[in-house]
């Protein structure tokens, strides 16, 4: 196709000639047709929508653009794989396999605390202001300072705490049931709590202790609307057994919710037990004798000794509030970690195993096991990583490690698996 530019009284016009020598005036497509094309691209991927706007000034003028929290423009399928020393980051689309590097000067002076629906949750280092950044559209949404809310989980929160333990915001979420949308932050310190706010609010509201036990909890917000933060139990059979690990009392079982498909309309739960204490001795013996089992047999501290763990995968039945065991996930791979959990089809990523669960770096379950294959219960050791300053990276939790960027892959260039196990385990992923 040949493309020429001609000048006229209305400015430059671009004419394209197709293979049959017919001229097409693409910039002057009917606005209704351009809008329909843009709408279809937006449903597919916001990045394609932005490319259409960038291709032609005439198209850009007739295509709408939103700089707020409009749900249509959230890059849900995009994840941040890595961050360099400056503000340059690498992003991957889990649905299409597209990978881009983007320079984000908006990151300067901020901590990346979490992400939700592709948006980065930033905390300003000095003021504790929270901002949501869309890395593709570069739209920035301002929210109130989180300082007071952080003191609810760490009463002695101060400048010293910011330096020693900068991360207290663990997860984030957005609810479109209000206008503008409500942003919720799950915070963990000496205590746990949830803070929520909307753009334009003066402060973050907190879910108090009674709210945890008696949801739904009614709260009236500034514009007179009624907001009812709710914790909805997914299942009611969570084990309450506790164990000591790294000098900290922790649950023997950790459950991870993972999207079951690309549209995020159904969920999987991966449940990991660090021991078999939740089973009776008879149940343990029966499960160890089965050919198809959910148990993991790993080498112990001494030759000839073994440690037993359990890893199960369920489909979440939200209507029935029950879990349905899953033995085959087809062509999907699941990555679980303490920062986030992801799943995707390996048809775009042939180097990743399908029907397998990958265990993220430095998480509750990042022991000697790195991958569990559901089809034959085969396990593989985790990928080799080292401390950035030298030395072997520890297995599992290590309270002496302050910065997640201190653990890096043993060798470069990194494989996609290494990028992804670090993405779900560390807030900044791999440091490029």
Q: What does this protein structure show overall?
A:
With 432 residues, this protein is an alpha+beta fold. Mean pLDDT is 79; it is low at 3-11 and 209-228. Helix content is 16%, strand content 36%. Helix 1 runs antiparallel to helix 2. The longest helix has 14 residues, at 31-44. Strand 11 and strand 12 (182-188) form a beta hairpin. The protein contains eight helices and 31 strands. Strands 19, 20, 21, 22 and 23 form a five-stranded antiparallel sheet that branches. Strands 25-24-26-27-28 form a five-stranded mixed sheet. This is F-box domain-containing protein. Pfam families: Beta-prop_KIB1-4 (PF03478), F-box-like (PF12937). It comes from Urochloa decumbens. Residues 91-359 form the KIB1-4 beta-propeller domain. Residues 26-65 form the F-box domain.
Key structural traits:
F-box-like_dom_sf; alpha+beta; F-box_dom; 432 residues; 5-stranded antiparallel beta sheet; 5-stranded mixed beta sheet; F-box domain-containing protein; disordered N terminus; 8 helices
What topology does this entry show?
Elements: E1 2-8, E2 11-17, E3 23-24, H1 31-44, H2 46-55, H3 57-62, E4 78-83, E5 88-93, E6 99-103, E7 110-116, E8 119-124, E9 129-133, E10 140-145, H4 147-153, H5 159-164, E11 169-175, E12 182-188, E13 192-197, E14 205-206, H6 209-213, E15 219-220, E16 226-227, E17 242-245, E18 248-251, E19 253-259, E20 267-273, H7 281-289, E21 295-299, E22 306-317, E23 322-325, E24 332-336, E25 341-345, E26 356-359, E27 369-373, E28 379-381, E29 385-387, E30 407-409, H8 416-425, E31 430-431
Helix pairs in contact: 1-2
